[in-house]
Write a structure and sequence with these properties.
single chain; alpha/beta; TIM Barrel; four-stranded parallel β-sheet; nucleotide metabolism; zinc ion binding; hydrolase; metal-binding
Length: about 375
Amino acid sequence: MTGPAPLDLASIRRAPKALLHDHLDGGLRPETVLELAAECGYDQLPAQDAESLGAWFRDAADSGSLELYLETFAHTVAVMQTPEGLRRVARECAIDLAADGVVYAEVRFAPEQHLEKGLTLDEVVEHTLAGFREGEAIAAEQGDIIRVTCLLTAMRHAARSREIAELTVRFRDSGVGGFDIAGAEAGFPPTRHLDAFEYLRVNHAHFTIHAGEAFGLPSIHEALAFCGCDRLGHGVRITDDISVPGDIEDAQLGIVADYVRDMRVPLELCPSSNVQTGAVPSLDKHPFDLLARLRFRVTVNTDNRLMSDTTMSQEMLKLVETFGYGWSDLERFTINAMKSAFIPFPDRLKIIDEIIKPRYAVLVG
């Protein structure tokens, strides 16, 4: 190749990508939802063919409200209550991400939401991890290499966070990389789960917190100052603490924003999802570019591929088209994510040096 590859969807799919924020129950194939629903007798789906069902999820998620957005998950969670369902969804997740050029992914889900058919928490995690390993193997046979790490989520409106934290530590040598809390932010601050975070810190376990998405700066402050999180899930509202009276060089950072940048706290930004939930008004108004130019550790993520009808390649293309990014920018965002992954340092470095940098070098030409 002479010169850089074109910055189009096909070329971006060939680029190696690292994904930190992807929900297992938000990434099912529509046809899988239909087939699993038929197998388990779930008869409340809003559409009966894959195309219509996929469109329903996308349209229902375009509400501008995080609370309404979260309601769509009732259907996906309902078909993920059996060993076969969990394994299939996890297996297909790994295959789909690998086919899109994702070489490292952290996929999160809430085990407490998958107990309706009698599975224990440990069994839920075991079947899901088995599905990821099966998906990795199938992807490798197809020529796509991916490593999937699982994050265990506790629901912030519930009271099982300590139990899920213990589950995270119990399975951390089996493919679970860390812990998360998720769900509606307003009225459910992260400080309700301090017992879980203290347990994780004592056991030197990694954790991220959904913060600064639907709720503002206080959510981010609590996640950092009281809970001690490693990363911020979304974190777009950090801009509440940033003032740009003129040029970018004149930007003024408040104490929280200054801390986040100084400490290189990774921001798990999800452009399409952030627009859907009303966290930002539109893609061109997304603070991704401001934060990138201010040298925050920004990362690109999908959040929920089914609800946003998206992939990592599509998210990157949208950023390219909106903000004019080039290959060097996409490589920087990818390395940002890989540096922030919840796996050992030598493993992170190996993926950066042996996969990400060489493959980007080919694309740049």
